[in-house]
Amino acid sequence: MKNVVASMLSEAEHGTVAACVAEAERDTSAEIAIVLADHSSDYGRASTAGAMSLSLFAAALLALILGWDSMWLFLLLFALLYPGARFLLGRFPGLKRLYITDAELDEEVLEAATVAFYEHGLSLTRERNAVLVYVSAFERRVRIVADTGMAAKEKQATWDSVASELAETMRQGRASQGLCAAVRRLGGLAAAHYPPRPDDLDELQNVIIGSPKTNEF
Q1: What is the greatest pairwise CA distance in the chain?
Q2: Residue 62, H or E segment
Q3: What proportion of the chain, given as a percentage, has pLDDT over 90?
Q4: What is the C-alpha to C-alpha distance for residues 167 and 174, in angstroms, rounded to an integer?
Q5: How far apart are CA 168 and CA 180, in angstroms?
Q6: Which of 11, 29, 37, 168 could join 197 in a cystine, given CB atoms 3.0 to 4.6 angstroms apart?
Q7: Which Gene3D superfamilies does the record cross-reference, listed alphabetically (predicted)?
Q8: Across 167-177, average pLDDT
């Protein structure tokens, strides 16, 4: 899969978003981090299902054209076509989405966001007040994950609202503007509950670009 995230933000926009995070954190002891991922899962089941359906269809069509009525010849065609179908799904991941349900997309993004939260150390802040903005390009979804301290201060509907607004802005092709708007809103919420501390330190990297470790996509 092409690096979608790399084309989502220019180098200048990346710097702008990082500056927005730094500015928001000046008014609070809480930490805000952004993770931009190409995808949240390799969706192996969808790859298998898609490759099987495509190769079965192509094998049946070829057998009909060639006039082959042998089941063994049909199975041979299927076996020969399957690797190509699998490669095609990997080369054009939009085809793979046809075999993935919305519920599966939601589940994988939530799981990947939770893993990223712990993987990047957001659970290690002194006051347990870090907030992760997780954007997954392939799934076109956004998740906000708040640590226990912040989560206790705001309802889940608040985080979902921020995520929804950001997702809509990104669909319009305004990634940097949307990210900065989300960060400013989160910074305002954090400042209300966690004002700056005299000994406050920037404990986390502001913008992280990468994808989960997967075997194939």
Answers
A1: 81
A2: helix 44-66
A3: 46
A4: 10
A5: 14
A6: 29
A7: 3.10.310.50
A8: 91
Query: Is 106's pLDDT higher than 90?
Result: yes
Domains and CATH numbers, the chain: 4-40+101-209 (3.10.310.50), 44-98 (no CATH)
pLDDT of 38: 87
Query: 21 with 207: CB under 8 angstroms?
Result: yes
Q: Which one-letter DSSP state was computed for residue 27?
A: T
Secondary structure class of 19 (helix, strand, coil): helix
pLDDT at position 95 is: 85
How many whole angstroms separate alpha carbon 205 and alpha carbon 72? Answer: 57
pLDDT per position as a tens digit, 78-102:
899 999 888 888 888 888 888 899 9
The amino acid at 187 = G
Angle between helices 156-171 and 175-193 (to 10 degrees): 160
Any alpha helices (H) in 67-217, and if so which ranges? 71-91, 93-96, 102-119, 148-151, 156-171, 175-193
Q: What pTM, to 2 d.p., does this model score?
A: 0.82
Are residues 173 and 13 in contact, defined by beta-carbon separation less than 8 angstroms?
no
